[in-house]
Amino acid sequence: MPCLNISTNVSLDGVDTSSILSEATSSVAKIIGKPENYVMIVLKGSVPMAFGGTEDPAAYGELVSIGGLNPDVNKKLSAAVSAILETKLSVPKSRFFLKFYDTKAHQSQEYAQCLHALHQHYY
């Protein structure tokens, strides 16, 4: 399950966050090659943040995926997510940083089983 966590110092008040979440979900799924129903996006706004010594609009993201990541995919993901943030939140591409975590299946098997158990229990 790919999970994209984005934090920004931009306020989300009055912002159509649904369109950001939808576009990010679609982009992550398409680029990694996983179904959209396995993609999670978390967006946090108004996070105190400085980049390059200023508090101008900026964002930080972390993308965790069990497989599917490589330098080419990461480059495409970074470009897609930064374009969404620039269009929707006016965060310049030069003020966005995205960190990638490729968690191998054997390392997350126990965690995935826990998530599966939670999913079965609550749904």
UniProtKB/TrEMBL annotation:
GO molecular function (one): phenylpyruvate tautomerase activity
Gene Ontology terms: cellular component: extracellular space
Pfam family, one: MIF
Domain of life (superkingdom): Eukaryota
PANTHER family linked to this entry: D-DOPACHROME DECARBOXYLASE, TAUTOMERASE_MIF SUPERFAMILY PROTEIN
Family of the protein in this entry: Belongs to the MIF family.
Name the UniProt record assigns to this protein: Uncharacterized protein LOC108845748 isoform X1
Organism of this sequence: Raphanus sativus
